[in-house]
Amino acid sequence: MEEQTAALREALTGRYGDAVTVEYIDIYSEQMPEYPNVLRLLLRGDIAVPIISLNGEPTFAGGIAQDMIEEELQTRGLQPLA
Q: What is the 3-state secondary structure (H, E, C) of 46-67?
């Protein structure tokens, strides 16, 4: 999953520059309390990983689909640099 996240980071920062930050957070790490919206979903047990959050809100779950993420970014007003 870390490799997929790295590939997504490379692709999105290449298209959107510094306007996009992509991070991999292991759900078993000590960082999880920093993401209460995601943690709440995980504790309910009815969501698949990976979970993709935009602006801190869980938006997609169960896979990494760059085209869906880009579509959502553009819906939110972010346009590719080139």
A: CCCCCEEEECCEEEEECCCCHH
